Amino acid sequence: MLLIPFRMPQTKLGLDFILKNPLHLQYYKIVFMKKGSKLGEFEEIVILTVGILGDNAYGVTIKDEIEDRVRREVSVGALQTTLRRLEKKGFLSAKQGDGSASRGGRPKLYFSITPYGKKAIQESRDVRNSLWDALPPGLLNEIA
Amino acid sequence: MKLPKTMNAPPKWPFRLLKLFCRKEYHLDIEGDLLELYERRVQRLGPKKAKQKLWKDVIFLFRPSMIRSILPDLNTSPMLKHHLQMAFRHISRDKTSFLINLIGLSVGLTAVLLILLWVQDEWQYDKFHTKDDRLYSVYQNYDRPTGAHTTVRTPTPLATALAEELPEVEQAVAVNDFFQWRNSLGLLSKDGESVEAKALMASHDFFEVFSFDVLTGNSAMTMQRKDLIAISDQLAKKLFGSTEEALGKSLEWDHSGFKGLFQVSAIFSAPPQSSSLQFDVLFSIEHLLDNDRWAGNWTNNYVRTYFVLSPDTDIESFNPKIDQLLSSKEEKYRSSLVFAEPFSDQYLYGRFENGKVAGGRIAYVRLFLLLAAMILIIACINFMNLSTAKASIKMKEIGVKKTLGASRSSLATQFLTESILMAFMGITLALQLAYLLLPFFNRIADKDISIPINPSFFTGTIVLGLATGLIAGSYPALYLSGFRPITILRGKLPSLFGELWIRKGLVIFQFSLSLLLVTALLVVNDQIQFIKEKQLGYDRDNVISFQFKGEVYDNWSGLQDGKSNETFYRFMEQLRKTPGIQTASTISFGNLLDKIAGQSGVSWKGQTEEEKGISFKSPVVGYDFIETMGIQLKEGRTFSPEFKDHYHRIMLNESAVELIGLDDPVGKTLRMNGGDCEIIGVVENFQHGSLYDMIEPFIFRFDINGGNVLAKIQSGTLAETLPRLEELHEEFLPGRAFEYTFLDEDYLALYKSESQVAILSRYFAGLAIIVSCLGLFGLAVFTAERRRKEISVRKVLGASIYSIMHLLSFSFTKVVLGAVLIATPLAYWVSSNWLNNFSEGISLSPYYLLVPSVSVLLLSWLTVSYQTYRAAKVNPSRALQEQ
């Protein structure tokens, strides 16, 4: 069991949370969060894309990147919803940046992966990999 | 922020939609993303496609997680403290405005409170019975050529029949109020001490049907036995000092209907004021049957019947069963229809027209509720007016706040808080005022209302205060928070298009209303004065009327059975001899005002078919009636002892003579009541009843055995004569109170509702005027603000203070004149309509229309003068500086 001092969204320091909550509540929250840490396919894609883009991950760039690589249309609504949800769950963190003329001066919201998010995608990859490794050797060769 | 207007300026509407539903936290960044995408798409796909995609994006953003919460962004606790702080600072900065606003609101709220209290009192009459929802009152209709006549009287055996034969009836009771014996007041005495008591007779289920609290004793047994009575706690205390003492004691009962010794076996708490059934003592209904040989028949209506229906019975489907029951008992002489209505409806819906319920007091209730709503609306409108008039003071504050990023909703909340605070202060003040005014109000409205001290009342007032604050404050909140900082910082005052006209319209409306009320006040008061002084053809000054409380038998109630009226004849003799009494007479029942006996079925020689059905007014009078009433004799003679008049001698009035078409009436005969009656004299026409009644044909019948006495007192001798009458009354009827009324007062009582209207209109006119002046005041302030620059420029160009005052006043005068133009024809129309109801009255001279208009005009000048003076005095350099 990993005792992760995960971050509540909108609080700056995870330390805050630890200091405020006794250990057993942390545990409960972690278990609870653990259930939520099952990533959906799209969610995983979004997190990975954010990782790829690094410093330049905001609404438009994320959408472009996904459409580029995954070759499927991403609706602004679906993307935004997912981004917010991931932020609430603690996988991503958001920071406001400057606006630009093309946006009429409106700021951009940059996303980056949190350590908790990193752990989550890593876990996901580990699980996936172990499944792949367990496939009988000959099977893959038959798939054209 | 305004978007740059370029060729491919993005379409507004998708963004507006987004702004509407999107959560605030996300809104800006999402907007930015959408903009970026739009710009790009325009270049790649062209503006049309870009727009389509934009719309699609926005619509698909409408997801639960994206939608903002409905409640305004209150950000409660810390903001509330700030709002209250600001509210208090606003108040202390401008105390006069605040006070004026508060007074206006309080006055309006007081009126509303009083009206609501009155309505509530009216509403719960008779509703205190526990079985109220199943309690019914039985009515009967008699079809007549003039329409169906509805009566509440029913045959005595009906109640028992209902209870026994119809399973849906749980209990039924028959109640008799002594009407056949003229009055229900009798004397209850114990050891020489006597008290007058109002009595009812009822059958044994009385206390099961009605919820009059039985304090001690056995009510069921009392109503079943003839020798037992139930008395009220008030009566018990009067006679015995306490209710415990009274139980089991014996009392003597003395009344013209029956007498006897009875034992008190139950004591109930006296009926509340909200009960239409009022009584001090209850007897068993058996006494009615014992003392009146026709009382037990199915052909006569002697009692009122009430019953309790079992739950879940539908009254509509039940009614025909009552009808069938009656038919099974008495087919020939029964009424045309018998039906039941809910008992508690009787007070407010007691008027019947042509056999159907047609309103009654409920009309007044509705009227007053409407009035209350109107007053509240006007008070709120005034509040709105005054709050937004002095906008310039708030301008800077709003401008700065908005620039610093305050949201519109938080500003609106600020103003709402202020108005709700004001409303609560207003309603507290209103409660105090209402409490103070309640005694006066009670006197006018003839009631006994007091401020109820219960939680539901306080909740009600709090809700009222909240509602008022919200309604009245909504417009100013929205209006003031909508200011754009740019406009404000430029020094301009924002104005809605047509705002000035809206305000002017409101003031016109208020003044029109005031004018109407003042005119109504003048007209009604003068008409009542006219009525008071109008000669009616009989002399009602110094005439008293009273009921002889002893036994007076007539041909139907005992004279035939050997009873005699000796006592009564002696009384009348002594009365006539009393110094100070000019003449005295009797009338069998009623008077010339509102209860006049009628006579139909009269026939004469040469009568046509239609004339057979005519109904004459036909009071039954004794000797000296014409003289006592001061009616003028035209031909022949009046009833007098020398001629030993009897039942077959009659007198007519001019109208009757004309109707029948007699040339020489004296000596001729008419056939009525199965016999021929000789006309012995004709009197001049007089106005009976009120001026609402038309002059009708009269046939005066004669019977010396009438129980209502009329006596004309020599003018100027009232002070000596009345005590003598008291003594005489005491001699003949010891222990009975001598209760009399003056005929002129009785006459005025016919106009009771008009008098009430006159008094009320006085207050409401005053109220309307105060409110209108407040409205005008607000308008003045508003105008002064808006026209500051204009005034300053004029001053610079050399205008004097007075000329500016004239200028401003003139615009207000136009407003008031507008109100006059609207109100005057309306007032004329309403007044003449009302006056037409009377057979005679004052004429509507221009006086009634001029006086209100002129006085209102003067008052309005007074109101605005101060404001115009202040506005004219403003230093022009200051106003022009604010560019």
What's the alpha carbon Rg of chain B, rounded to whole Å? 38 Å
The quaternary state of the protein chains shown equals heterodimer
Mean pLDDT of chain A: 76
Strand order of the largest sheet of chain A: 1-2
Mean pLDDT of chain B: 82
Strand proportion of chain A: 5-15%
Roughly how many Å apart are the termini of chain B? 24 Å
Count of individual beta strands of chain A: 2
Count of β-strands of chain B? 26
**Intertermini distance of chain A:** 40 Å
Largest interface: A-B, 22 and 23 residues
Q: What about the largest sheet of chain A?
A: 2 strands, antiparallel
- Unreliable runs of chain B, pLDDT <50, ≥5 residues? none
Whole-number tally of structural domains of chain B:
4
Report the portion of residues of chain B in β strands: 5-15%
In short:
Chain A is mainly alpha-helical and 144 residues long.
Name the descriptors.
heterodimer; A: mainly alpha; 7 helices; 2 strands; 59% helix; elongated; B: 883 residues; alpha+beta; 6-stranded mixed β-barrel; 15% strand
